[in-house]
Amino acid sequence: xxxxxxxxxxxxxxxxxxxxxxxxxxxxxxxxxxxxxxxxxxxxxxxxxxxxxxxxxxxxxxxxxxxxxxxxxxxxxxxxxxxxxxxxxxxxxxxxxxxxxxxxxxxxxxxxxxxxxxxxxxxxxxxxxxxxxxxxxxxxxxxxxxxxxxxxxxxxxxxxxxxxxxxxxxxxxxxxxxxxxxxxxxxxxxxxxxxxxxxxxxxxxxxxxxxxxxx
Length: 215
Prior knowledge:
Blueprint: E1 21-25, H1 30-38, E2 42-44, E3 53-56, H2 62-73, E4 79-81, H3 83-90, H4 111-116, E5 132-135, H5 142-148, E6 153-155, E7 164-167, H6 169-176, H7 182-193, E8 202-205, H8 206-213
């Protein structure tokens, strides 16, 4: 497809790409790259948390797609565009393609977050000793006393000192079903509002924790 180059005067109005960073994945026609730049974009070749848009060209590398998935895992979701989407933008159809200039995290917790960060109890007498735990509001209240007896600090809130998160068995089941609930939304909110660039909370469930505490 041929992409006609316009003069600078044609792009004096703000476009979806004005002041935005665009990452090109795969093979993107040179003429199309020039049009994107002419619309005010700053071009990058590697996905990062500072990218507003990702243009999917032909045959993107597996590594670049994995990087894009990792960004989403950590709450960074650049808008993904196809060449057809770029055509729409070039024709002045901006509405559905606009994104804020300020990039913010928007984490959506999944079962993968739990599995990737699941607390391992085996191989340690007390893996939670001196740790700061957040207990979700729907876990048994008796856990506070039981944890205190093991030298573990338990709180009803998440802050910069939180090391691990305890969710209810019901919340874990919702993650298995691809759903969330108020307790999980709170975790998402606290992470999104923090300065953290990667989701690294250790996670466990009330059932797993109770099994360990009662040993």
